[in-house]
Write a structure and sequence with these properties.
Blueprint: H1 2-10, H2 14-31, H3 42-72, H4 79-95, H5 100-109, H6 116-142, H7 154-180, H8 184-199, H9 204-231, H10 236-251, H11 262-275, H12 279-308, H13 312-340, H14 349-375
Helix pairs in contact: 3-4, 3-6, 3-9, 3-12, 4-5, 4-12, 5-6, 6-8, 6-9, 6-10, 8-14, 9-10, 9-12, 10-11, 11-12, 13-14
C-alpha cells in the first residue's frame, strides 16, 4: 500500500499542465518587455537589504500570531519552534504546489498531541485573518481612504460578481442534495477540527489577532515600498499598499509553487495601475520583489527543515504512513461497527466514522512515536 501511495503522488495530473501554462505565460510576458535594469547604487542596495529585514520582522510576527492561535486551542509550543515552522511552511509554499507548505507545517507539528486536522484548522484561521485584513485594506481603497489609486474597470468586477453568484447557486444545490442524503452531519464530523479554530476568531480573541494581522501587512507594505524605490518605480505608500493587497489576495489562491502566474499577474497589473510605469521598470520591480519575498525565506526554511526536522524525505515518509494508517483504520473501524450492530439490522454509519476517527488518531500517534524513537537524532539547535 505504501508503494501505491508513492505511485499516486508521483504521477502527473492536469494541475501540472496548468502550472506549466502559467509559468509559460509569465515568461512570455517578460520576454516581450524591455530588458530589466537592476539597481547598483549603494542606496538601492541598502533599500533592498532593509526590505529583506522588514520581511523577516513580518514573518516573526506571523509566528507570534500562530503561536497565540495554537495556545488558544491548547497546543503549547515554544516561540522558536513556531517561528521555525512558519519559515518551513513558507519554504514549502515556494517549492511545493497548492500551498503545500501549510500541510508540511501540520505534519511536522502533528507529534505535539493535537490532530493534524486541528493544526490545519489553525492554519486555515491564519488564512482567514489574512483574507479579512486584506479585504479591509482593499475596501479602504475602493472608498478612497488610502489614496487615489486607479482601480480595475467595471467589466472584471461584473464578471467576478457573476462567478460568485454562480458558485453560490451551485453550493446551494449541493447543500440541498447533501441534506437529502444525510451527508451534512457526516461532512461536519469530518470538517469540525478544521473549522473550530476559525470559529474561535468570532470573539475578542479574533479582533486582537485581526489587529495583529493589519500590523503584519503594514510591515509587508513597507517591503513593497522599499523595493519599488530601489527599482525606480516610486509607487509611494498608497501605491505600495495597493500592489501588496492585490498581489496577496491572488496569492491566497492555491496555485503553482511560488504562486507563479497568479502573483506575477497581480503585481504587473497593480504596479502599472498605481505607478504608470513602462514594462521594463515593472519587470525589474517584479523580479526584485520575487527575490526579496521568496529567496531569503526559502533558504532559511530549508535550513530549519534539514537541521531540526530531518529534511523533506521525512515529511514524505510521514505523509505516506499517515495516509496508509487512515485507510486501514477506516476499514477496521467500519467493519467493527457493522459487526457490532448486525443484530439491529443496520450499520450506524456515524458511529463507524467516529470510531474510525479515534482509531486513526491513536494509530497516528503510535506510528509517529515509533518513528521518532527510531529515526530522530540528538536535538540540534539552530
Amino acid at each position: 500500500m505504501a508503494a501505491d501511495s508513492r505511485h499516486k503522488h508521483s504521477r502527473l495530473t492536469p494541475w501540472h499542465g496548468l502550472w506549466v501554462i502559467a509559468l509559460g505565460a509569465v515568461v512570455y510576458w517578460i520576454s516581450q518587455q524591455s530588458a530589466p535594469k537592476f539597481p547598483t547604487s549603494a542606496r538601492a542596495l541598502t533599500e533592498l537589504a532593509a526590505a529583506v529585514g522588514i520581511y523577516l520582522i513580518a514573518t516573526l510576527l506571523r509566528a507570534e500570531r500562530w503561536q497565540r492561535i495554537l495556545r488558544h486551542h491548547d497546543v503549547r509550543i515554544a516561540y522558536t519552534e513556531a517561528a521555525g515552522l512558519v519559515m518551513v511552511g513558507y519554504m514549502g509554499n515556494n517549492v511545493l504546489p497548492a500551498r503545500g507548505g501549510e500541510f508540511l507545517r501540520a505534519y511536522l507539528l502533528g507529534q505535539k498531541g493535537a490532530t493534524k486536522r486541528s493544526i490545519l484548522g489553525t492554519v486555515i484561521a491564519e488564512r482567514a485573518l489574512d483574507a479579512a485584513a486584506l479585504g479591509l485594506l482593499f475596501l479602504a481603497f475602493t472608498l478612497g481612504v488610502l489614496g487615489n489609486v486607479k482601480l480595475p474597470s467595471n467589466t472584471p468586477l461584473i464578471v467576478a460578481v457573476a462567478v460568485v453568484a454562480f458558485l453560490l447557486l451551485v453550493g446551494l444545490a449541493i447543500l440541498r442534495f447533501a441534506r437529502s442524503h444525510h451527508l451534512v452531519e457526516r461532512a461536519w464530523n469530518f470538517l469540525r477540527p478544521f473549522a473550530t479554530p476559525a470559529r474561535a476568531l468570532l470573539s475578542l480573541h479574533g479582533v486582537v489577532l485581526l489587529a495583529v494581522s493589519l500590523v503584519i501587512w503594514g510591515f509587508e507594505a513597507g517591503v513593497y515600498y522599499m523595493v519599488s524605490d530601489a527599482a525606480g518605480l516610486g509607487l509611494g505608500i498608497s501605491g505600495a499598499l495597493y500592489v501588496m493587497v492585490l498581489a496577496n489576495l491572488f496569492a491566497l489562491i492555491p496555485a503553482a509553487p511560488g504562486y507563479v502566474g497568479t502573483f506575477d499577474a497581480a503585481v504587473v497589473f497593480a504596479a502599472k495601475a498605481a505607478g504608470n510605469a513602462t514594462g521594463g521598470i515593472v519587470t525589474t520591480y517584479l523580479l526584485l520583489l520575487r527575490f526579496v519575498l521568496f529567496v531569503p525565506i526559502t533558504v532559511l526554511g530549508a535550513v530549519v527543515l534539514f537541521a531540526r526536522y530531518g529534511g523533506i524525505a521525512r515529511y514524505r515518509t510521514a505523509r505516506a504512513e499517515a495516509e496508509e494508517t487512515e485507510e486501514e483504520a477506516l476499514e477496521e473501524a467500519v467493519a467493527a461497527a457493522s459487526a457490532s450492530s448486525s443484530g439491529n439490522g443496520a450499520a450506524p454509519i456515524a458511529d463507524a466514522e467516529r470510531a474510525a476517527h479515534s482509531e486513526r488518531e491513536r494509530r497516528d500517534h503510535e506510528r509517529e512515536h515509533e518513528r521518532d524513537v527510531r529515526e530522530t537524532p540528538a536535538p540540534t539547535t539552530v
